[in-house]
Amino acid sequence: MMRTVRDPSLSLIALNGVDPEGPVMVQVPPVADAGQWRSTLSLAGSRIGFACECVAGGVRETIQHSAQFARVLNALRMAGAELVPVQALVTDNARHFTLDSSNEINDRVAENRLDGLVSDAQSTAFHQASTAGNPSFRVPVGMGADGVSTVIWFYGAHWSAERLAALVLGCRNVLGHLQMPTPP
User: Which pairs with CB-CB distance under 8 Å and at least 24 residues apart come from 22-28?
Assistant: First the structure.
């Protein structure tokens, strides 16, 4: 109904019967337009990692992100987040038991000083590592070309559940304004 904070203010003035051009109202400063706050960088200072390549057995392979995930990354960047490309490990499903006790998500967050990691739902990056009890959040971002709802995943280190929750809340606010194209 109202596009700015000033709209309801003017409506109330009109209902009150006071002339906005009158001598009393000229000295009252106009209500600030909320549009100026939309341009502030709501994710400024946030560091978000995303997988740029997968590593399996020492072999590196560049990840091709979907157009929709690229738009999500761009929206996060425009909101002030620093996007940090990281490597994602591809685990060998044939070897269920290993002596390696590291946790990929904890390692990436710590070594890059990240607030969290983001991954496309179609990507294999970080999904397997998240089963180790790391906090994770699923955020819907629109409809895919096939008409199916698409999501992105946010992952955090074991010790960063509250920080990740705050980051995801900020990202949801940013992505809520992102207009994803709908399928024809």
Answer: none
